[in-house]
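Proteins fold reproducibly. Look at a sample protein:
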Amino acid sequence: MKRFIALLFAALAASFAVSGPGFAAEPQAGREFKPVNPPLPSAKGKIEVLEFFSYGCPHCSDFHPLVSQWAAKLPKDVSFRRVPVSFNRPEWARLARIYYALEATGDLAKLDTAVFIAIHEQRVAFRTDEAVTAWAAGKGADAKKFGDALASFSMQSKVQRGDQEATAARIAGVPALVVDGKFLVNNEAARDFEDLLRITDSVIAKARKERSGK
């Protein structure tokens, strides 16, 4: 009897190690993710993970260092793309243009985190394009190059496309993660941001399995 109980306990422990809180070996629709129907166009050849976010969102600010570290360690068959959204709020639309302008001028790696810090810790008010450009120049960006990019029509078009993607994926709040254009990771299933990323890993595994046809 003692041997049976010991074996039973070992089996339960092994099961918990595989499928403990926040991680599902086979994530379930309605629990760990919500299907995106119709699916978003996704990167060919790779499983694309989209992060919908806004610099104006305090939760996105907290999530940023964790998701950045996670994204840097993704397998070679997975790509990562960030999509700033505005939810039709003019102030957030400007923040989305900041992201795309930094990306266009090559300043994103240097100033990405700094934008979050400026807004949520230093309480910098980016109420005008001129204020944004002056701030970026003070951080080492080329004022003319950045200002021209920020005000360009292409930046506005990118913001509109990002909002269209968010609408198509039925994004109701940020941060939000979509895997392979088909799976919106359920934030409510996660206890914290680390758990959210663990669930995302399991959804990536599901997408990989579906792609392989197994």
